[in-house]
## 1
Amino acid sequence: MKPSEPDEGEVKASAMAREQETKAIQGDIARLEKTLEDERKSKEELLTSFRYLQADFENYRKRVDREIRDLEEFSTAGLVRKLIPVLDDLDLAVATASKAQDKGFLEGVKMVQKNLTATLEAEGLQRIEAVGKPFDPSAHEAVEMVQGKDSSQDTVVEEMRKGYAFKGKVLRPSWVKVEIAGKQAEPKEGGQA
């Protein structure tokens, strides 16, 4: 017996079935490729969002660290400001004790003064230099003025009270006596000198 050859209808039906199956597979492949592309886009969006979130968090952390440092500095400045009168009292005690007979007491007060000053300086306190320096209204407060002769600028000639700065910011200006520059005072508007 001779194997039967498929008839033309069966061949067409078989070809159509394969064609439909191929189209179905191609459709599945297209859907999978689209899903894959959508997932890639979604992953990129999530990654971008994560990077923004990470940068925001890093900025937040830096801002909080800065605020903590500022708060610590502000707190320390408040304490240092309260201790400045103690330094004044110790200066007065040393000046008074220098005239006394008890040299042991003087040495003890000087030691306390030196330790307190060193501790405050380690925290950021600086004494404002005044005598012989040009008058600086942001660091010096003129409590007395005298006319100068040949000077070209206003100069501090005496310090009545020490001034202090904390990490570059003036806590208390120096009270000073200022020698006014040798120039003549210019008349004010209205003809008054």
Note: The chain has a mean pLDDT of 83.
## 2
Amino acid sequence: MAQESIRPTRLELLRTRRRIVLAKKGLNLLKLKRSALIVEFFNLSKEALQLRGSLQQKIARGYASIRQAEMMEGPTRLESISMLLPEVVPVKVSTKNVMGVKTPRVDAGEYTPVGSAALLDLPTSIMESIHQFQGIYQVVLDIAEKENALRRLLREIEKTKRRASAIENVLIPRLQATVRYIKFRFDELERDAFSMLKTVKRKMEAEEAKASVAAA
């Protein structure tokens, strides 16, 4: 706001001071929110890191179990059995609220790899492979959920940081400058009024002196 457009009134001064108080409260809330978001971000980062480590281990065990099943049953039988496995239930994605940020919630549903009577007499080695890759499937979904939430939290942290910076470095200094300007204008008006009173007083004294001389 240009200072020329500011009305140097006491009402405007009160309004500007109230805006400063509100701006400082908003700034504190934004800083608290940013701190909470950062804590949540690092907590999720640790969980995602642990899941990625778990995924590597599960993939290693999964491929080891596949190799074992292939050696015991042969690649042709392994491939023919794989064609009998039911399709994975479609993933359902909803939303959840994390510190005011909407993040996806991935629901894998119920994944039952042995869903028909034809699979009940599977060899143990193949059942073990199915079990291992079922765990991999769930971990991949968990990682996808966590990493998507991390990206959204990071965007919200940056957005909150920019808003707090704008309030702290632009809005509040501008409002404080407005208060100083209004007070400066008040001081000017007070000095002008004082000077005018002194001028009026001198004129009155001069007129009184003339009247006294005329009367004498």
Note: The chain has one domain: 6-187.
